[in-house]
Every structure is written in structure tokens, then in C-alpha cells.
Amino acid sequence: MNNLPSIFEEFSEARKNGFIKVKNFKESGKNVVGVFCTYTPYEVIYASGAIPVGLCGMSDEPIPDAEKHLPKNLCPLIKSSYGFALTEKCPYTYFSDLLVGETTCDGKKKMYEYLGKIKPMHVMHLPQAQDREHALKVWKNEIEYLKECLEKQFNVKITDEKLREAIKIKNEERKLLQEFYSLSKLTPPPIGGLEMYKVLEGTGFSFDKIEQNNNMRKMIDEIKEEYSKNGSKISKSAKRILITGCPIGGAIEKVVGTVEENGGVVVCFENCGGVKEKAQLVDENKEPIEAIAEKYLKIPCSVMSNNDGRLELLDGLIDEYKVDGVIDVTLQACHTYNVESMKVKEFVKNEKNVQYMSLETDYSKTDLGQIKTRIAAFIEML
């Protein structure tokens, strides 16, 4: 495709432009809730009248400051997130009235104890099994507890009507994003992985969801129209890569950029910022808290044991996106994803007959040369 729609830039620049927007929101009297994970039930935050904003650190800049308090051999996402809060270098953290996290991993869970000394902190205790009846009850109770916390923090009443309205808007966003990333099922895809990721990431920093959804609809239609007229700038012979594993934001350029510099194209992100959370909707016909609890508990993150849902998701994605190779990205010291990589490798290679590569990295550039060599060899092998 020769030209991307002008609206595309709004999404790709959303994180940067959001700094001013979040300041304006605060000055207009609105509340801001900082969040860290796809398990966060956004609908409850929206129903409180607040806006949620992602605080996961994606830069190695504040890590040296974080390492004054945290171990050096800890996940870079955890260190970066804490470092930004500690140094007050992240406007989103600075303007947050409340932080909400989940006990997805031990590193985050303990880091939240320190974070709570900097900002008001609410931690949701996530059940780590999805196939037990009491797990849903526990998670529903945690969502009720979050609801009560938000009501007390912001002096509001979260009604079922407000929850249903938030569910509807958030579901509409998910459906539009599903349609957007599904464009990469085309051969060749209309956009590359870097461009796709900028849009997926940008929606987390777009605070007026109704306006965002309208812009998303317009962007999708324009991409389809441009593709039908002029095709794609991407070669039909480009090897189609699926990215799975840890959140990839802090390593997006050195992994995805390298893939696309070497004759590949990333057609699907299975990980947190991609398909994983958006694959299922909240049931709009059920009692709101129950429906929210059911939807979020089904997210197939590696913290769950067993986590067969991840393999089921990969099974469909590999076929639908006509994937030639899978790159499993693990951030340093992320033990759950690191341990799970063997299971994913066996499934991808033995069950799907697709090539697989495991890649462990952090946010620094020290391994950039090695990564470029390995990815180039992987693409060439395909």
C-alpha cells in the first residue's frame, strides 16, 4: 500500500500526544487510574467516570534508578515501570490518582509494595487457575472489591447501567481492533507489524473511546479501499511471522524491526498488547460484574496453570494468518513465559509443523547485534 490514512498518525502518536490530554483531563476535574496488565477490568474504571492509562515501562532509561531498590536480574518491564514512578519521569504515573495492579507474577506483586509508597495502590489478587469454579468466584469478588475501592476513592456510585454502557463501548473497541488486525490475514498484508503495533498500542492512550472507535472505523475503511486500489507495499513473498510471549513494547524495534528488515513481515501479535485480550468479548446479556469476571479470567497468560488456552489460541492464529514462523519473545527473568516456551515450541513444531525460535532479551541494545544475526538466519531458513 502506498499511503496510510492520515488518521493512522493519530494512533501511532497517541502515547506522546496523550501527555497533554491527560493533563487536560486532570485540570477539568476528571480522575486518572494507572494500570499495568490486560487482566485489569477497564469497564469498571470507565464506569467510575475515571480514565485508565497503561503504565508498563517500555524504556531502559529509568532502569538504573529502579535498580537502586530492585534486583538487577529482574524483568525489565517491572524495573522500567517502577523507575518511571520513582523518578517522576512518566506524566501518566504522575497524573494518576490511583494505581491498579494484579498479582500476575511475583516480581510485580512485590514491586507494588514499593509503588504503594509513591502512589495510592490497589492490588487485585488474581486466581491462577481457570478451570475451577471457585476461581471465578474469587475473581468476581476481587472485581467487586475494586468497584468499592473506586467508589470510595472518587466518591461516586458505580451502577449496573454505567457498567453496561462501559461494556458496550469497550466491546465495540475490541470488535474494531479484531477487524483491524485481521487485515493481516490478507496476502500480502496491507500494513507491516510495526505499523500494526503502533495502532494497537495507541488505543491504550486514546481516552475518548467513542471518538476513537469512530476514527478506527474510518481508518479501517480507508486501508481497505487503498488496498483494493493499489495493493500493498509488502512483497507477497515476505515470510509471515507470528510474535508470541511477553509484552514486546520495550523490544519492538529490535525484534519486529529486524524481522521486517530481513524479508519478513509480522502478521500477528498473540501477546498481551495484541490478540490475547481482544479475542473475547464481555457478554452483554449477563449480570455485568459476572460477565466481566468471566471474560478477563479467560485470558491465557502464562501465569495460569494449566495454560492450555494459549495453545488453543495459537492453533487458530497460525492457520488463520498463514504463519511461516513463530518467534517466542521472553523478557529477562520472566520465569512463567520462559518455562512455558518448551511447551509452545513442541506444539508449534510438532503439532503445527511451523518453524519456531525462542528469543530472550531485555530493553537494552547490548544484544542487538546477536538478535539481528539470529533473526536474519531464521528468516533465511524459512
UniProtKB/TrEMBL annotation:
Pfam family, one: HGD-D
Molecular function terms, GO-annotated: hydro-lyase activity; iron-sulfur cluster binding
Cofactor(s) needed for function: [4Fe-4S] cluster
Gene3D superfamilies from the UniProt entry: 1.20.1270.370, 3.40.50.11890, 3.40.50.11900
Alphabetical UniProt keywords: Iron, Iron-sulfur, Metal-binding
Record NCBIfam families: double_cubane (NF040772)
Family membership noted in the UniProt record: Belongs to the FldB/FldC dehydratase alpha/beta subunit family.
UniProt protein name: 2-hydroxyacyl-CoA dehydratase
Native species: Clostridium senegalense
Biological classification of the source: Bacteria, Bacillati, Bacillota, Clostridia, Eubacteriales
